Amino acid sequence: xxxxxxxxxxxxxxxxxxxxxxxxxxxxxxxxxxxxxxxxxxxxxxxxxxxxxxxxxxxxxxxxxxxxxxxxxxxxxxxxxxxxxxxxxxxxxxxxxxxxxxxxxxxxxxxxxxxxxxxxxxxxxxxxxxxxxxxxxxxxxxxxxxxxxxxxxxxxxxxxxxxxxxxxxxxxxxxxxxxxxxxxxxxxxxxxxxxxxxxxxxxxxxxxxxxxxxxxxxxxxxxxxxxxxxxxxxxxxxxxxxxxxx
Length: 246
Hints:
ten-stranded mixed beta sheet; five-stranded mixed beta sheet; 15 strands
């Protein structure tokens, strides 16, 4: 059985633990401010101790609002101990026009720990006729296993974001992107996803060096969410958190 041992909350971020059953521990992060504005600073630090298992999601999509000057910052640090398992799967981050966000995700894994990481970014809500013409978005990920860097990724979009997204080599007019990262690699998951029919956007999956990565690009946030929900169902081999399917 996994259970929480230490919880610290400050500012607008709160964490709740729904009753997920005797063998599961689920954490739900809630931003009580309703979104992120320019100059806001947020940090999440989670440690899963030896042999424990934890799933983390958010109560809703995170909205990043327009900022005239100051950028918002988000720092996520995840530590997964020996024989432990972490599924980090927040709802999507929605960027508004002229928003400014700098995010870092740093993950430290033990030699035999397991990780499922799912992150999605939507550039404007298409259903509301919104789009992101300009803004700033910086996203830096670093994953280390037993202290050794095994995965690194950095995205930076500055200025005319809509114009950049139109490029065929970027998203070819897509406005919703995501990635699922699995460590260790899961070839059965890749095979199941490749056999799947009815996906709404572009999905590419591959495994190498002991990890699996799946990238998503969709024409709108709703299509991306449906594709992610399908893929996470395969990856978890069980039910998704209720907040993902409601």
